C-alpha cells in the first residue's frame, strides 16, 4: 500500500536548480503518452573522452529520467534493430544526401518513430544532435523530423571573468568553480557540469579567466591545472581558452619590455603557446584586453593594436588557435570639451587598422559603444571593419541590469542590435549577418558572452536569470530565433509544459527588459546606475563630472549627449550615410535613443507627444508598476506542475525584492530630475506620497536623523539610524489613516557589514520581524554597499494587515556591526495602491 501511494505522489520535488534546463523530469500532463522509443542506443565511439560516447550516456540518462525507461548503450552496430546511431562523420554506413549539407559542428537528426539516427559532422556535432533530440522529448514533442542543423558561426564562446583568488568580477552567483587561492581547484565536478550545460546549447569554448588577466594563470603550475579543466570539458566538446596579460613577458618572463615587436617578447609568446598546446592539444585560443581601463598594451610602445594582436596570432596560428581581441579601448576624457566622446573611441582606434589584422584574429565588439547599458545603438565599429573578422560581445552577467536580483530577460535588448540594419554601402547590413561573416564574406566570426556562473547551485544565483544563458547559446547557433520562442523552450525544460506556467513566465520575462529600462534609464540616457561604485542601484550624478565619459550632460534646463556632426561630438558620422541621416536629425531619431544623440531641453517634445521630463516621470512609474505585477503573477503559479516549493520560494523572494527596489529606482530618478529641472509632474505623483509615514517624522527614541547621500535615494532625503551601533532604537507613530486592511511596507537600508534586526508592531502586538542580512548571508548576490544609498535601499512588506485608525505603529531596530538599523519610511498600502 505504502509503496503504491508513494509512486502516485505528484512529481513536484524540491529542486535546487543545479540541473538547470537539463532536468529530464517526467513529463507533466502529457496527452499523447510516451512515443515509440528505440530499444537501445548505439554510440559509435567507446572512448570516454569522446563527445559521441557522452551522447550515448546523455541519451540513456535522459530517457531514463523522462520515461523511466532504461536503455542499454553499445558502441557497435551489431547489437540491435531499432537504434540510435551516433556517427562522427558521414560515411558509407549513413546513406543520406542530407549529410552533404552538414557544416562544421552541424548535425543531422532523423527521427522516424522508434528509429532514430543522429549524425554529427564532428564528434561534438553528434552530441549537439543528441541534446536536440532530448530537448524535443523533454518538451513532449514526439514528432518525426529530418533535420539538418548548422551553426551560424564557428565562434560561440563564453567569457568567464573568474580571478585566481576565487572571486568573480561582477560575479553574483557565488565563487569561482575554477579557481581558488591562486590555483585551479582540485574538484572540477562543477566545471564538468558547466560544460554539459554549455554543450547542450552548443557553446564550444570558455575563456575561464578574467579579461583583466593575471599572469599567474599561465605560469607552469597553473597551466597543468588549466589542462585538467580542458580534460573535464573535452567529453562535452567544449574547449578551453585563456585571457592574457599583455605585460606577462615583463611580469614573469624576466624581460625588460613587453613591446610586441621585441624578438624576446615574440619568443616568450611562442614558448608560452607551445607549452599550452603540449598540455592542451585542443586549446581554443586567446582573449586579449589591452590598452583598456589601465591594462597594458601595445600603445605603450607606440605599436598599433594590430601589431599587438598579430604577435599572439602568429604564435597560435600553427596550432589552429584564434585570438579574440577586444575593441573596448578608450581614453579618459574631459567633460568640459563638448566634442569629447568615449562612444567614438573604438572606431577611432580600430577603423584605420582595418585589413591589418591576421586572418585568425577576431575583433570582439560589445553590442553598443559604451558598456552593456540598458539601451545603446548598435556599435558603429560593425560598419567600419569590412576586411577584419569581428564577433559580437554580449553580457549574460547583468552588471548594469539588476545583477541577477532583478528579472531582466535580455534577448529583446540584444534583438535591437542583432536586427539593426547598418546600411553599409547603402545595402542591407544586419549586425547578425556581419558577425557571422556573411555580410562581408569573412570565414571567421561569431560571438562571446560574458557569463558569471559561480558555485551557487543555481549557477547564476537566480533561477530565472538562467533563461539568458540558455538564450545566448541558442542565438549564437541561430541568430534568427525569436526571443519568446527560445523562452518557451527554456520554461518547458526548466519548469514544465503546463500552459499557465509557460504563459505566465513568458509574460513576466518579455515585460522585464522594457520595465527595467523604464525605471532605470530611458530615452537612451543609459542605465543611471552608480558607475563609480557598485553598478547596481541608482545614482545618476555619478555619470557626469568624471573622466569615464558616460555622461548625460544634465543641467537645470537641458540633458543628453549631442553626438551629431553638426554641433556635437561627431559620433553619428561614424555610421554609414543612411543611418547617419537618421541619428543626425533630432526629428528622425527614435525617442528611445533621443538623449543618446541629442542635447535637448527637458521640455522638448518627443514623437510620443510628451515632453522629455514627463516621459521620465511616466516611464519610471510605469516600469515600477510592471515590476510589481511580477509578484502576483509568480504567486499565481504556486503548486502548478513543475513549480516546486524550493524554487517557488526562491523566485518569490527575488520578485518581492525587485518590486521594492523598483520603487527605490523610480523615486530616486524622478526625484533627481524633478530636483534638477524644477518641473512638476503633470500627474502630481512626484514628491507626493499620501500613504507614507517618514521615519524622521515619527517619535524617535534611540534613533536620530541621517541625511542620505545621494539625496534622492531616501524618501524626503532623510533616514533614521540608531544613535549608537550597540543600542536599540524605536520609532513610533499613531496611525491617522482610515481603518482597514493594508500591506505594510518598511523601507530600510540593508548594508553590508551588519545584520540589524527589526520588529514591527501595532499596539505592541508584533506584526513581523526580520533581519537586515540579505547581502551579508549571500541571499542576494549583488555587489553590496556599506552605505545608506540606492544599492542598500530596500523594502520589507507584511501583507494584509488589519489596521485601526489610532493604532500605534512601532518599529524597533537593533543595530549590528556597522549597520545602525537604518529606516527610511513606513508605507500603508490599501489594496491596489503601489507606492
Ligand atoms: C573516438 O573518440 C576519440 C576521442 O575523441 C577520437 O580520438 C577517435 O578518433 C574517435 N574514434 C572514431 C572512430 O571516431
Ligand atoms: C595575481 O594572482 C596572484 C595569485 O593569486 C595574486 O597574489 C596577485 O595579487 C594577483 N595580481 C593581481 C594584479 O590581481
Ligand atoms: C625568471 O627568473 C627567475 C629567477 O631567476 C626564475 O626562477 C624563473 O624561472 C625565470 N622565469 C622565466 C620565465 O624564465
Ligand atoms: C611614442 O611616441 C611619442 C610621440 O611620438 C614619444 O614622445 C614617446 O617617447 C614614444 N614612446 C616610446 C616608448 O617610444
Ligand atoms: C568570399 O571569399 C572567398 C575567399 O575567402 C572568395 O573565394 C570568394 O570569391 C568570396 N566571395 C564573394 C562573394 O566575394
Ligand atoms: C545560493 O544563493 C542563494 C541566494 O542567492 C543563497 O541563499 C544560497 O545559500 C546559495 N547557495 C549556495 C550553495 O551557494
Ligand atoms: C551647440 O553646441 C554648444 C556647445 O558647443 C551648445 O552650448 C549648444 O546648446 C548647442 N546648440 C544646439 C542647438 O544644440
Ligand atoms: C547612399 O545613401 C546616401 C544617403 O541616402 C546617399 O546620399 C548616397 O547617394 C547613396 N549612395 C549610393 C551609392 O547610392
Ligand atoms: C531650450 O529652450 C530655449 C528656450 O525656449 C531655447 O532658446 C533653446 O534653444 C533650447 N535649447 C535646446 C538645446 O533645444
Ligand atoms: C523631511 O525631513 C526633514 C528633515 O530633513 C524634516 O524636518 C521634515 O519633517 C520631513 N518631512 C516629512 C514630511 O516627514
Ligand atoms: C551576519 O550574519 C552572517 C551569517 O550568520 C555572519 O557570517 C556575519 O558575520 C554577520 N555579520 C555581522 C556583522 O555580525
Ligand atoms: C560601530 O560603528 C563604527 C563606525 O561605523 C565602527 O567603527 C565600529 O566598528 C562599529 N562597532 C561595531 C561593534 O561594529
TrEMBL record:
It comes from the Eukaryota. Keywords: Carbohydrate metabolism, Glycosidase, Hydrolase, Polysaccharide degradation, Xylan degradation. GO terms for cellular component: extracellular region. One of its GO terms (molecular function) is alpha-glucuronidase activity. Its main location: secreted. It is found in: Secreted. InterPro entries: A-glucoronidase_C_sf, GH, Glyco_hydro_67_aGlcAse, Glyco_hydro_67_aGlcAse_N, Glyco_hydro_67_C, Glyco_hydro_67_cat, Hex-like_dom2. Alpha-glucuronidase involved in the hydrolysis of xylan, a major structural heterogeneous polysaccharide found in plant biomass representing the second most abundant polysaccharide in the biosphere, after cellulose. Releases 4-O-methylglucuronic acid from xylan. This is Alpha-glucuronidase. It comes from Rhodocollybia butyracea. The gene is aguA.
